[in-house]
């Protein structure tokens, strides 16, 4: 497989009155052609900032891109002109962001908004253009698309507006679709419908997808690879099955433990990771998760662990100084001995 996107050593900071916020810290990863990458992590882990940075959508200042390359299709996005990036955004890279109300223009009809994207990035005009717009609305499951073209965003439900945004994101058959919290605001049923839709789009068009979410459950359903971020770094990444089955970072383990399951629903309370995310203007010296991690060793508090491969695995990587499976086994044995 070849990497469609190759991010190398991306570091982004913000100058704020409270100091320098280190939002993204030496981030490197690849997305292969046809792969669906699910990126998870609590609020403030650098998910959105790194995506916006590589798309050239961060306001600089206050943001500052300290270092980094982002190779897409043979070009380093970080060195492209604004004009070249505008060509790529909405064209070869489709985007679907959170909050449908603010992403659609309220004073333009839905048909007009789709038309503008297609006119900017394709040669379609006239009847062919109209047919493509109707087709797109149909693909994303909007009933009576022809009649819906002349309606405004407020005439659509939240779920339907999100479908329109996906239609816009997919309009030009992008090679890469990046969604950031695209289903967070929607109820569970609509979310499930949209995930089905994205799976179908992947199957039908082979689109490569980066799906950013808080929700490990969504990752389990949609992604091939999961990437867990914390403090602007990757804590763990690998094939979904491998990471879910045997997490190596205590942070991943905590996220998985806080997932509602059939069993947990009957329990009184869901597990919650103790403490709160770090202050990015004053990051701890070592492993950013160490202050919240009861497995942390002395070294975790002083030295940042590098991302390394799980023994014997080609694609499961983690950043931790401790051996989580061994620690969990010991805890289980101790609990057994006590009972
Ligand atoms: N305009 C800004 N000025 C200052 N700091 C910012 C700005 N935008 C983001 N940050 C900081 O950058 C860090 C990373 O934010 P980011 O939006 O990437 O988090 P996220 O992982 O997307 O979180 P969420 O899940 O809440 O969307 C946070 O500490 C945030 O406060
Ligand atoms: Mg975000």
TrEMBL record:
<comment type="similarity">
    <text>Belongs to the ABC transporter superfamily.</text>
</comment>
<dbReference type="InterPro" id="IPR050388">
    <property type="entry name" value="ABC_Ni/Peptide_Import"/>
</dbReference>
<dbReference type="Pfam" id="PF00005">
    <property type="entry name" value="ABC_tran"/>
</dbReference>
<protein>
    <submittedName>
        <fullName>ABC transporter ATP-binding protein</fullName>
    </submittedName>
</protein>
<dbReference type="Pfam" id="PF08352">
    <property type="entry name" value="oligo_HPY"/>
</dbReference>
<dbReference type="InterPro" id="IPR017871">
    <property type="entry name" value="ABC_transporter-like_CS"/>
</dbReference>
<keyword id="KW-0067">ATP-binding</keyword>
<keyword id="KW-1003">Cell membrane</keyword>
<dbReference type="InterPro" id="IPR013563">
    <property type="entry name" value="Oligopep_ABC_C"/>
</dbReference>
<dbReference type="InterPro" id="IPR003439">
    <property type="entry name" value="ABC_transporter-like_ATP-bd"/>
</dbReference>
<dbReference type="GO" id="GO:0005524">
    <property type="term" value="F:ATP binding"/>
</dbReference>
<dbReference type="InterPro" id="IPR027417">
    <property type="entry name" value="P-loop_NTPase"/>
</dbReference>
<dbReference type="InterPro" id="IPR003593">
    <property type="entry name" value="AAA+_ATPase"/>
</dbReference>
<keyword id="KW-0472">Membrane</keyword>
<keyword id="KW-0813">Transport</keyword>
<keyword id="KW-0547">Nucleotide-binding</keyword>
<feature type="domain" description="ABC transporter">
    <location>
        <begin position="7"/>
        <end position="256"/>
    </location>
</feature>
């Amino acid at each position: 497989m070849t990497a469609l996107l190759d991010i190398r050593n991306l570091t982004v900071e913000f100058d704020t009155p409270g100091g320098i916020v280190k939002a993204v810290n030496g981030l490197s990863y690849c997305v292969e052609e046809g792969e669906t990458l699910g990126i998870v992590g609590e609020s403030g882990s650098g998910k959105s900032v790194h995506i916006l940075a590589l798309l050239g959508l961060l306001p600089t200042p206050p943001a500052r891109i300290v270092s980094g390359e982002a190779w897409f299709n043979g070009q380093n996005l970080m060195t492209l002109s604004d004009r070249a990036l505008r060509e790529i955004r909405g064209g070869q890279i489709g985007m679907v962001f959170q909050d449908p109300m603010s992403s659609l223009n309220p004073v333009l009809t839905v048909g007009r908004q789709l038309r503008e994207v297609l006119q900017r990035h394709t040669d379609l005009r006239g009847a062919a253009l109209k047919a493509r717009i109707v087709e797109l609305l149909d693909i994303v499951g909007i009933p009576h698309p022809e009649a819906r073209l002349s309606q405004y965003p407020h005439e659509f439900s939240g779920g339907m507006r999100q479908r329109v945004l996906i239609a816009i994101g997919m309009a030009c058959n992008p090679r890469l679709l990046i969604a950031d919290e695209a289903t967070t605001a929607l109820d569970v049923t609509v979310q499930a419908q949209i995930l089905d839709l994205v799976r179908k789009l992947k199957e039908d068009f082979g689109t490569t997808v980066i799906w950013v979410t808080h929700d490990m459950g969504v990752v389990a359903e949609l992604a091939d690879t999961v990437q867990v971020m914390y403090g602007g770094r990757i804590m763990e990444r690998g094939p979904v099955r491998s990471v879910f089955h045997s997490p190596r970072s205590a942070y991943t383990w905590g996220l998985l433990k806080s997932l509602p399951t059939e069993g947990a629903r009957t329990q009184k309370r869901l597990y919650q990771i103790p403490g709160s995310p770090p202050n990015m203007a004053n990051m701890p010296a070592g492993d950013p998760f160490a202050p919240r991690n009861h497995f942390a060793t002395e070294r975790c508090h002083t030295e940042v662990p590098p991302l390394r491969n799980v023994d014997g695995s080609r694609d499961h990587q983690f950043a931790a100084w401790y051996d989580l499976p061994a620690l969990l086994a010991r805890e289980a044995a101790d609990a057994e001995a006590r009972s």
